[in-house]
Each structure stands twice: as C-alpha cells, then as structure tokens.
Amino acid sequence: MVTTPITAASPTGSSYTGPIIDTDVHETISSWKHLAPYLGEPWRGLLERGAWTKPGAPFAYWASHGVNRADSFPDSGAPAGSNYELFKAQVLDLYPIKYAILTGQFMPGIMEMQFEFASALASAYNDWLFEHWLQKDERILTSIHVAPQDPQAAVREIERLGDHPRVVQIILPIAQLAYGDPFYHPIFEAAQRHNLVIGLHHSSFVKGAMGRGRYYIEWHVNVPQGAMSLLTSLVCNGVFDKYPNLKFNIIESGWSWLPHLLWRFDQNYRSLQQEIPWVKRLPSEHILERVKFSTQPTEDFDAQTWLRLIELLGTDRLFVFATDYPHWDFDAPNEAIPRGLPAALKSRIFYENARELYGLEQARSV
C-alpha cells in the first residue's frame, strides 16, 4: 500500500492552503410538504394533511439550537441546511471547497413500517434535490437516497439515477440494519455496477451494546459501536469478497477506534475462519483497502497523536475531510485538522483521498 512519508512536524508548521473536498454536507428541505408534488396517492395526501412530518429523534439535543449551529437558520425561519445561499456563504465560498457532497438529513432507511412509503419518499426527495440543489452550483455533488428495507425498490432507484454525472454515492443509515445480510446484497450489486460509493452515515437510531442509555451523551459517545458492528457484518457476510470493486465511506462515526477493531478482527479471523470460509483475506486488508472514514467528529487530537494513529494503521489513505454542516459540532477546515501535520498529509486528508474514493478529476500536483 502506498503511503505518504510522514516526518515529524513542528506545532508551528505551515497551514494547508490547497483545495478541499467536503464529504459530508447535510442539506435539507424547508418543508416536507414540498415533496407532495413528487408523490402519487396515497402518499401525497399524508404529507398535504400533515399526517407525516419525518421520523423523530428519540432524544432531545442539549445544544441551544437543537442539532444545528445557531447561525445556520435562514431568516425566513426555515430549517437549518435548507437554504443554498446561506450554505454557499458559510461553507462553499468561505473555504476553498472544490466539491461538496450532499448526504442529507433525510433517512428513509430508519422507517420501521410502510416500506413502500419509505421508497416513494426517497425517490421524491431525490427528484426535489436534483431540481433545487444540483442546478445551483457545479461544486455540489450528491448521494442517492434509498430505502434499504425494500432492496428491490432501492435497486430501481439506483438504476434510475445512478449514471447521473453529479451522483457519486448511495447513502445508507447506520441504524438497526445489518447490511451484511444477503437480503441487502442487491443494493451493493447495483452500486458496484454504477461505480458508486456506499456512504454509511450514523443515525439517531444507532444503539450501543446496552441500548441507547438514559442520556443523550451516552448515545453520542457510543455512536462508533454502530460503525464497528456494521463493518463486522459486511466483512463476515462476504460483501467485500462478493463485490471486489465496491468502496465504502463511514461518515460521522469517528475512526480512533479502528486500530483496536482491526487487531481484534484479524485475531478472531485466524482462529475462526472456518466459520466464514467465503472470506478469503484478513478483515484488516479488506477494510484498509476499501473503506474511508470521515474526519468529523475526530477527537481533539494534537498533531503527534494523529501521526501515531496513522503509524498504527500503516496508511494515510483512510481519512476524508467533512464539515458536518450545519450541525452544532461543525468542523471548520482551518480549525479541525492540527496545524502541525505535514503538508502532504493535509493534502491527503482534505482532498486526495476523497478525490480517489469518488473517482473525481486527475490528481493535482502537491
């Protein structure tokens, strides 16, 4: 595996000034009733009558403006993340953003009933997104939203939109669905056929080993458990072996836990591989070669801790930058990554790794 040489850097090292790819932008819709024109009956009536708003979070947020930063709300009173002009001013034009990949705040995959409705909503949201966001700025790329609980409908949506030049990934929620299960494999087959990344984003429905706990802080601390369990499911059920060209991005679930997972996973594979003979390589090899991890939310590491963790992992190709706009724990590019990291490593984190993951334009010179 090719790795950028890493040398010790002083805390006063030069700041990064090159292009950036933001891999996690949470656009949203100002009113869910705006999806009504894109829906047929009986789904349209549910929205027009206000009988459905969106799946609610199972807890209250402690931040003063809920899950979002205070300045991300438009003056119109619309939800944070629903106004392109405000996003443009606060992210696209404020930082050297080359591309911004929309991941949304809409997750039809967490709907536990009425799967046909979830699929219809996903399709309607995709149509709304194409009309109201993609046409406004060439820097904006997007994800296809599908309802994975209805794999056949999800595949139809991927076939419908998967070849659009501004579509780069399929977004699936990390919730209570073990996507390694062969039930979901048609989605992976369609994603590989269209050369699309599978983006796996945590949701409020992630549970730790003992549930969500009584407090929001318990859930927030335990979010990585969802990503760890999901990676285990994908590897053990042969997804990486079955779809050798498929790539993944674990979004907003951290990554400092990764060395432990890889070590433990490989150790158990060596002892118990007879149970999963279809997995032909060490789990760590699959994950290190095929999975990226968004930087937000990275713990408050200093530069030396970053370098130590990269040394433990043996590669600097795993990390893609994300702001998590418009959420309260937004990561500004000039603050989220330590100044003391080498320039080549910053280029990897801010730009090159995502460019390679999503198959964007040729690498710039560093």
From TrEMBL:
Query: What name appears for this protein in its UniProt entry?
Result: Amidohydrolase
| Entry's Gene Ontology cellular component terms | cytoplasm
UniProt domain Amidohydrolase-related: residue ranges: 80-360
What are the entry keywords?
Hydrolase, Lyase
GO:BP terms for this protein?
A: secondary metabolic process
Among InterPro entries, the record links this protein to:
ACMSD, Amidohydro-rel, Metal_Hydrolase
Q: Which GO terms describe its molecular function?
A: carboxy-lyase activity; hydrolase activity
